[in-house]
Write a structure and sequence with these properties.
The structure is a homodimer of 574-residue chains.
Chain A lengths: L21 H4 L12 H11 L28 H11 L4 E2 L2 H6 L6 H8 L9 E3 L4 H14 L3 E4 L16 E4 L7 E5 L4 E5 L4 H9 L1 H4 L6 E2 L12 H6 L7 H4 L2 H4 E8 L2 E4 L12 H5 L8 E8 L1 E2 L6 E7 L2 H12 L9 E4 L1 H10 L6 H8 L8 E7 L3 H17 L3 E2 L3 H6 L9 H7 L3 E10 L3 H13 L5 E6 L2 E2 L2 E10 L4 H17 L18 H20 L25
Parallel strand pairs in A: 2-4, 3-4
Antiparallel strand pairs in A: 1-2, 5-6, 6-10, 7-11, 8-9, 8-10, 12-14, 12-15, 13-14, 13-17, 16-19, 17-19, 18-19
Helix pairs in contact in A: 3-6, 13-16, 19-20
Chain lengths: 574, 574
């Protein structure tokens, strides 16, 4: 048993050194951090049998200068000159730090490798287009010269989506192409350049009445955990979902029209909310992950911003089965959907109650007394938005359903505890990794009739690994199913060990009826699962579309969506 | 002025002669009819300056035997034998009546031609597949032999969607492939064969608790005006919308997964309500109108059937502008959407109040007193469904918004008057056509910021034709826009005159910012507008997908969706 009064670990709080690997892989604000709470730390110490001493000296923190030697693979000096002529010298960089920074997403694997100075694929040149016409000229030029084109939005990809497997150029969309183009209050739409970041977009909408003299204030309704460091264009091309998507819809539901620059020319869709004009070109482009073209502009639905109507509520259930029953009944109840809607399994509830400061409290004792036992009880946190009575009726209906399923109200307290930190959790990773503890997440979509087999099956795989925590929650609800978001905390011998473990989980998703991902996109990491999951007929269609837009395979080549590998593994393309 | 006491016209009530043209073009039940009410008739007499005498002897009623000589264009006796071997002799017909019947949809043009015995394109052979495997073998055989394949669902196409322009075979889906395959209550989905008809599908769901021992009763939520004579597969492949789609979603929103038989093999999508696995193959196939393959099975969202919670309400507004303002505010109000939601313009309101028996009533006098003047006032009829308080809150919110926009409640009375006859209106056409009066409808999607320019612009075109009534309503609402459904009643010299008039209206849709159609599909009739509307880039993508699935152009060739005409007009392909 570890002593209760233990010293505070030596968490790193200083901003990463300028030019260091750490400055690349660290999440978010260089000065931002979120240390594990004492109770979580104690659990980790117990799980991994670590002493205070373990937390004194960080292991390979990556706080050393980026330095590597990687010659250009495709780009020649003539190419550089031509590209400089298009966008101007100031918007082109061949600097190694930039080449690495804009080649790096937020997978655990990338972070672990960079801590050790292991550099994988980088692009030859980083380019910051100023406007649509720059993108147009760049794509046309690269197509003529067969130069691979990768796109960097917010950089929060967790699937190697922006990995420049074949060198070439990386377009950084956020540097210049980050403006609100138009807010159309009549149609309740906003048109933005693809590189605008989530918070800038949301701020523009929240403050619309001042900035654009609109009658109402607005919200975009899209809040992925990566919100602060993700781009609107990224949401669209990777099929993102946000923490309130059960109410507002996933990114695919928010898109009204789009403008892409492709190797075969511009493609612009129209602003109609619905028509019967044949197959949906919009839904071909949404989720295309840079394989068909570069998204330059997008028009999205917006919603009235009415935070004053928000309602918080939460419930505790005696078991996962009861909690799932309630979750499904709510999703099928036809009274509208909660906005935040999360259902944690036994283990996540156990850890969550510690994190929210409820474990050990009076409330905890009351719960135990009422029979909600640790490692059996399951927590639901939720909120409702929209018109006032509509939101109120959701709370009321949820309460009725939860009680019928044996749940007990915990008031809005746990949701309120969760809400302020909801974009901060990714900061935890650096602290844990600094001391050799690995945390990673994988998500999978599932229909209601398979949720228990999938949950059990995947947990079995995760828990078969010694000393591994496995927290699971459902966070996006539909009448037909949900997603399961698995978070595991473990230690690993080495990176290969971690990769092998991830593959086992992905195999279990497939085996027990899940999808490769619900809202993380495919990128390159999940690309081997596209074919077994979708089958030949769907893959052949996607490949035919790829050939149409990108006959020279310059758009995000090297495995993205599994479209261009012809039998090789994406990791072989280096 | 026509006398008020006029004799009853000699409406045809007898079922069409067996084997007659009339038995093909007449809407619905052979014994079904819906005669124009006296007030409508009086309006028509006034408009077209017709006397009672005009309504004594019907003009070319088509009640004569189908007889034509049209040799097979593609099919040889060897083909017939081979096809008989696949599906059995009983499921193959080369009979002229069948060839015409299953080549005919419900456009006004087809009806007028058949009255005169004018036969246009027919297929060579009518085939009734028994199951998926029949379809599989038929499509494979036809692909090898380059035989065109057309698909007949419910036969309610209003765009020549099932016109066998190039001969070949017509598959009739409803004869055998009309079953509910599976009802999954846990996932709230129903899987059906594509040929099942609307009422059979809805009845199976409404009676699910008896038929399938489910806990709840269900509804499909899809009620196009053609409901009684349309197939579920047709809803999906033509992107249909129903009269309650503002709440339940358009057909595209209802689809969870699909199974198609295509010339390059079977394509089956998966049952997940949402994933992030790249472009949506489902949304490529929905709306493909038989050009990529034959839909054989589809899994749809279903909803709890709670008619006891239904609320009816209606409002009258002093002007179209005020009515539209209220409609938009409701669609953007974030309290859920009404199910039925129709907003009639001045002229449709004028005629509608006659049809609903309100014109001239006490209520009418009260409305006039309150300043709601004829040919200015506009009627909204609506209902709400779903959970009880949810539906109640929609009624309450709508009332608040309508009052703020200057509207006055007419209680649920007009909606209740409208509801029972809502699938019967198509019967009107036969009566009117029997006396040379033409009625036709065209629909177009529009964003809120263009609704008035489109409404005014199209009305101007329609009203520039002498003695023409033009009724318009919005019937499918989105936060970003709606549709405008134009109904015109006119007389025409001949069919070419009518066609030219339709083309003028379609041109006006394009000119004033509408789409070629909101929920009638493209078929062949609207195909000339695909290119100007969508532009080259979108059309090129659709054509590339067509080439992928149908390299020999056997699937619904001759103009469908504008994919295979290479510069010719679809009418030239005969």
């Amino acid at each position: 048993m570890v002593a209760r009064t233990s010293i505070k670990p030596n968490w790193i709080e200083a901003a990463p050194e300028k030019g260091s690997y750490r400055s690349i892989f660290k999440w978010g604000d260089p000065n931002g951090h979120k240390h594990p709470k004492a109770k979580l730390l104690r659990l980790l110490k117990e799980t991994f049998r670590l002493t205070d001493d373990h937390f004194r000296v960080p292991v390979s923190d990556g706080n050393h200068p980026v330095t590597f030697s990687r010659p250009c693979r495709v780009i020649t000096p003539e190419h550089v000159s031509a590209i400089c002529r298009i966008v101007g010298d100031a918007n082109v960089s061949a600097d190694d730090y930039d080449r690495l920074k804009f080649a790096t997403g937020k997978t655990l694997e990338e972070s672990l490798r960079l801590r050790q100075g292991q550099v994988q694929a980088v692009s030859d040149l980083v380019v910051h287009p100023r406007h649509k016409d720059d993108v147009r000229q760049l794509v046309a030029y690269c197509d003529r010269e067969k130069i691979p084109v990768y796109v960097y939005g917010g950089g929060s990809s967790v699937n190697f989506g922006l990995r420049p497997s074949k060198g070439g150029i990386t377009l950084v969309m956020g540097t210049h192409m980050n403006k609100v183009v138009r807010l159309n209050e009549t149609n309740q739409t906003a048109t933005v350049q693809a590189g605008i970041m989530g918070p800038d977009y949301e701020a523009a909408l929240n403050e619309a009445s001042q900035r654009y003299q609109t009658r109402h204030r607005y919200t975009g309704g899209h809040f992925p955990q990566s919100f602060e460091y993700s781009s609107v264009g990224g949401w669209v091309v990777t099929l993102g979902s946000g923490q309130m998507s059960s109410y507002y819809g996933d990114a695919c539901d928010l898109v009204i029209s789009q403008e892409y620059v492709t190797p075969v020319g511009d493609l612009k869709t129209l602003d109609f909310p619905a028509t019967a004009n044949g197959p949906s070109v919009d839904r071909v482009m949404i989720g295309s992950e840079g394989c068909f073209g570069v998204l330059v502009e997008v028009t999205l639905k917006i919603f009235r911003y009415m935070p004053e109507n928000r309602r918080y509520f939460s419930f505790i259930f005696p078991s996962w089965e009861k909690a799932v029953d309630a979750g499904r009944e709510i999703a099928q109840g036809q009274f509208g959907m909660p906005a935040v809607f999360r259902l944690s399994d036994e283990e996540e509830t156990h850890i969550g109650l510690k994190l929210y400061g409820i474990d050990g409290s009076l409330l905890d004792r009351y719960m135990r007394l009422r029979g909600f036992a640790p490692m059996q009880r399951c927590l639901m946190i939720a909120s409702a938005e929209g018109e006032k009575r509509f939101a109120g009726n959701i709370r009321r209906s949820v309460r009725r359903i939860c009680r019928q399923a044996g749940g007990m109200s915990l008031t809005g307290y746990p949701t309120r505890q969760w809400a302020p930190g909801r974009f901060k959790d990714p900061y935890l990773r650096e602290d844990l990794n600094d001391y050799g503890i690995l945390i990673e997440t994988l998500d999978t979509a599932v229909t209601w009739d398979r949720i228990h087999q999938l949950h059990r099956g995947v947990r079995e795989v995760v828990k078969s690994r010694p000393d591994t925590l496995c927290m699971t929650h459902a966070s996006h609800f539909y009448a037909q199913g949900t997603n399961l978001y698995f978070i595991f905390i473990t230690r690993a011998e080495n990176i290969d060990d971690l990769i092998a473990f991830q593959e086992k989980i992905l195999y279990a998703f497939q085996q027990f009826g899940g999808s490769p991902t619900h809202h993380h996109g495919i990128g390159k990491l999940f690309s081997p699962w596209m074919q077994p999951h979708l089958g030949d007929a769907q893959m052949d269609l996607l490949k035919a579309i790829k050939r149409h837009f990108d006959p020279n395979t310059i758009m995000n080549p090297g495995g993205q969506l599994g479209l261009d590998l012809n039998g090789r593994h994406w990791r072989e393309v280096v």
